[in-house]
Write a structure and sequence with these properties.
- The protein is of the alpha/beta class.
- The chain is 22% helix and 31% strand.
- The chain has six helices and twelve strands.
- The chain has helices at residues 76-84, 118-130, 152-157, 185-192, 210-222, 234-237; strands at residues 2-13, 18-24, 36-41, 50-55, 64-70, 90-97, 109-114, 137-143, 165-171, 181-182, 204-207, 230-231.
- Helix 3 links the parallel strand 8 and strand 9 (165-171).
- The longest helix has 13 residues, at 118-130.
C-alpha cells in the first residue's frame, strides 16, 4: 500500500446517514474493482491517528475516487472522520487492499450486500459491464428500510446494461408501495435455495457486517455451497474456522 494525498471534492448526503464522498487525486488511482482504501483519521494534531477502511465504489484509473460512508453519531471514530470530511479538505489515504477481486472466466455470479456494502458491489458490477459479462448475475441488496437502498435507481438501471442481471432488493420494514422482498436477507435466500434448487454452484461476493456475512454463509453452506465460495473482506479482518 502507498500513502498519498487526496482532496475532498464533494460530500453529498444520500440519506440522513449515508454520504457519497468524492476524492480528488493528483494522479489516476490504481486498484482492482472490489478493493478498498484507508483514510488516516486524526483525533487531534498531536496524535498519529488511526486508519479506517472503505470500499471503493468507482472504477480504477481515474483521478476521482467515490466512497459511500455511513455516519454513526454514537461512535467517536465516525465523528472524528466526519470532522475531516469537509469539501476542500486534504486527507492522507493509502490504497489499495483486499482480496475480493474478480478472477476467472465469464460465469454465473451471486452478489449480496447489506447497506453501504453496495459500494463494493457497485465497483464490481461496473467492471462487469465493461467486460460485457454475459452470464447470469443475481444481486441481493438488503437494508432495514427503503432509505437504506440509497441508490436503488442505479441498481435498477444495471438491468439494462448487463445481458442477464436480476436485482433482488430486500427491506425489513415495509413502506407504502414497496414491491420488493420483505424480511432478512437470509429469509429470502432460504426461499430461493431449497432442496430442489441447491447452492452447490453458488459463487460470487458478499459485503456486510461479520454477523450478516457468516449468517448467510451458514445458510448457503447448509444448502450445499462450498466454504468461502462467496468472497468477503470479513474473511480477512474477522476470520473463522470452517
Amino acid at each position: 500500500m502507498i500513502n498519498t494525498f487526496a482532496k475532498v471534492q464533494q460530500l453529498e448526503a444520500l440519506t440522513n446517514h449515508v454520504y457519497r464522498v468524492t476524492l480528488q487525486l493528483d494522479t489516476p488511482a490504481f486498484f482492482l474493482p472490489g478493493q478498498y482504501l484507508e483514510i488516516q483519521v486524526m483525533k487531534n494534531e498531536q496524535s498519529e491517528g488511526h486508519w479506517q477502511a472503505f470500499s471503493i465504489a468507482s472504477l480504477p484509473d481515474q483521478k476521482q475516487i467515490q466512497l459511500h460512508i455511513q455516519r454513526l453519531p454514537a461512535r467517536e471514530n465516525s465523528q472524528q472522520l466526519f470532522s475531516q470530511l469537509k469539501e476542500g479538505a486534504n486527507l492522507t489515504i493509502r490504497l489499495a487492499s483486499g482480496q475480493c477481486v474478480l478472477h476467472g472466466k465469464d460465469r454465473p455470479l451471486t452478489l449480496i450486500a447489506a447497506g453501504t456494502g453496495f459500494a463494493q458491489i457497485k465497483s464490481l458490477i461496473e467492471a462487469l459491464i465493461e467486460k460485457n459479462w454475459q452470464s447470469p448475475i443475481n444481486f441481493y441488496w438488503a437494508a432495514k428500510d427503503v432509505d437504506g437502498l440509497y441508490d436503488l435507481e442505479l441498481a435498477q438501471a444495471w438491468q439494462n446494461q448487463l445481458a442477464d442481471f436480476t436485482l433482488i432488493p430486500i427491506v425489513e420494514e415495509v413502506s407504502e408501495g414497496w414491491q420488493g422482498e420483505v424480511g432478512r436477507v437470509t429469509d429470502v435466500l432460504a426461499n430461493d435455495y431449497d432442496e430442489t434448487n441447491t447452492a452447490t454452484t453458488v459463487e460470487g461476493f458478499i459485503c456486510g457486517s461479520p454477523n450478516m456475512v457468516y449468517a448467510v454463509e451458514d445458510l448457503l453452506m447448509s444448502r450445499g455451497m462450498p466454504p468461502r465460495a462467496l468472497l468477503s473482506d470479513v474473511h480477512a479482518y474477522m476470520p473463522r474456522d470452517y
